[in-house]
Write a structure and sequence with these properties.
about 280 residues, alpha+beta, Nuclear Transport Factor 2, Chain: A, four-stranded antiparallel sheet, two-stranded antiparallel sheet, 10 helices, about 40% helix, globular
């Protein structure tokens, strides 16, 4: 065996070890979350109150939610690792009060439809929950979650989420085939019966695109008229967002020569909406 062949074999072994370590790390993360849920079931007094249901705690519901949808929804052509959509539907039935509707749609069906978009609009989806904290009150509780949504872009992503950029081939080539790491903060609210009643979600699409595109101007080009409502993709944004004037990014040479004077104007307060289940993710 030549030195070149030995080098190739060595690098191959190193790569295989790296992949195995990443897989082991993900398994350990999931085990830690499940252990945290078990700990909270025994150590948090609130988990033995009406906030728990059928022996399950809000924390265990949250951990199971991220496990159920960790690689999206089972759609035609999905890999075998994706759980059955019927199993996911049954889980949502246990998580949400029966007959709950949002915007005239059954809550569980709405959640599944949102996940279907994420799964079909991207080449791959991976949802991770990196930390979860239980916050309790007198008759209810909330779980604050931090994690990352990994989305691999395809040409269909551009067509269904960024149709305005379909002619921007230079921009599209920077995105197709790339994986975006969208960090998010979520808060799941449970009522006195231990059922999910609200979900607040704040994904950082700008930060994820900046990591790939590298500059604000390209981010403005791709996000300017994107079909993103909160964290729901494929829908027109809220009216107040759609009506905002685009921000002009001046070249460095202009900013060095003169400093523009901006008149201060009174702006109406921005409402902080609490996104109900019609904005739930994944």
């Amino acid at each position: 065996m030549t030195s070149s062949e030995r080098g190739i074999n060595f690098r191959q072994r190193q790569y295989e070890r790296h992949v195995a370590l990443l897989a082991d790390n993900q398994v350990l993360r999931q085990q830690v979350l499940r252990l945290q849920a078990t700990r909270d079931m025994y150590t948090q007094k609130s988990l033995s109150t009406p906030c728990s249901i059928g022996g399950a705690s809000p924390m265990s519901f949250v951990v199971e939610y991220f496990h159920q949808f960790r690689v999206g929804l089972r759609v035609p052509g999905a890999p075998a690792t994706v759980l059955s959509s019927e199993r996911q539907r049954a889980f949502l039935g246990a998580l949400i009060e029966p007959h709950t509707t949002f915007g005239g749609n059954p809550a569980a069906e709405l959640i599944l439809s949102i996940w279907e978009r994420y799964t079909t609009f991207h080449s791959s989806v991976k949802l991770t929950c990196e930390s979860a904290e239980l916050v309790t009150a007198d008759s209810c509780s909330s779980v604050v979650v931090h994690g990352t949504l990994h989305l691999r872009y395809s040409r269909r992503t551009i067509e269904d989420v960024y149709p305005h950029a379909a002619a921007e081939e230079d921009l599209i080539q920077k995105l197709i085939g790339r994986q975006l790491h969208v960090h998010y903060r979520a808060q799941m609210h449970f009522n006195a019966n231990g059922k999910l009643e609200a979900y607040e979600m704040a994904p950082d699409f700008v930060g994820a695109l900046m990591e790939v595109l590298g500059n604000l101007r390209d981010c403005e080009r791709i996000l300017g008229r994107a079909l993103i409502r909160g964290h729901v993709i494929g829908e027109e944004p809220e009216p107040e967002v759609a009506g905002m004037e685009s921000v002009e990014i001046l070249p460095d040479s202009d900013t060095e020569d003169e400093v523009p004077v901006v008149e201060e104007a009174e702006t109406p307060p921005v409402s902080c909406r609490s996104m109900k289940l019609d904005y739930i993710l994944s």
